Amino acid sequence: MSVAVTFDLPPPGFVLGWAFAGDLFITAGHKGSLSDERLDEYQAAIESREFSCVLGIAIGAIGVTSVQRKRIAQLLKGKKIIVITDSAISRGIMTALGWLGLDIKSFNVTEFELAAEQFDLPNLPASEILKVATTLKDQCHPDYVQRAAM
Length: 150
Fold this sequence. Notes:
By secondary structure, this protein is an alpha/beta fold. 41% of the residues lie in helices and 29% in strands.
């Protein structure tokens, strides 16, 4: 890989982690509710880096309040966003974010490769996006987070 990758994995009890890979911000979350505390950390991470593309991975329904949804929409406005999800609830949230002005395309979890191919990043081919996204998704799984904390 020709770009540096940095991960911020969720502490036990939290449902959202992220990674930066060049011009790409990748988020991964598993079933549960997003806390305001973790959202504050998410905002700080976003505000600390320049990026133009976002890949979001949601496995299961992630509870996000209307206030949090609006806040996320403001943070990601103007970014190219691709979302991979297996949850109808999450797809509903994406629709709501689209109403707030975001440019979002969504894919089923069975379309991971197709989603990664949507980005045209010179130093980050789809195969590398897949590696980073899969690592993040796996390490953000609650079972992994609990084991890592022991």
